[in-house]
């Protein structure tokens, strides 16, 4: 029986994570680098609710910041920069040479520019009427 294609837009997070791990295992084998680790900082209020997060990973000399968020009620107070600085410091401690991040032009490109990230590309029409901006920060060796 041949494989069948099926739309599974509500695939369980656990199954998706397991498939991603299979991809990561393949990537480790192809590159000979097995130093991938999560890199996550959370900012919590007095009730221990997450009000901000910087989440990504480090692997093979790079880090990617995949998720950066601060709750609307806590924005403009320097929390985003605090999270970003912690992410960068931990990446540097792990020996990372470059940190990559993608953000939309309506989110926080200025935050990354002020933190020493260089604009590498801007992809217009992602989403329509806006753009997706790719940044990279090179760390000292």
Architecture overview:
The chain is of the alpha+beta class. The N and C termini lie far apart (53 Å). A six-stranded mixed sheet has the order 1-2-3-4-6-5. It has helices at 13-31, 79-93, 109-114; strands at residues 37-44, 50-59, 62-70, 98-104, 118-124, 131-138. β1 (37-44) and β2 form a beta hairpin. The protein has three helices and six strands, in the order αβββαβαββ. The longest helix has 19 residues, at 13-31.
Top keywords for this entry?
141 residues; alpha+beta; 6-stranded mixed sheet; 3 helices; 6 strands; globular
Alpha carbon gap, first and last residue: 53 Å
Number of E-type strands: 6
What's the Cα radius of gyration? Answer: 17 Å
Q: Looking across the biggest beta sheet, what order are the strands in?
A: 1-2-3-4-6-5
The parts where pLDDT drops under 50 for at least 5 residues are: none
Summarize the amount of helix as a percent range: 25-40%
What structural class do the secondary elements suggest?
alpha+beta
SS summary, helix count: 3
Largest sheet: 6 strands, mixed
Reading the helices and strands in chain order gives: HEEEHEHEE
Proportion in β-strands: 25-35%
Shape: globular
Q: How confident is the prediction overall: mean pLDDT?
A: 96
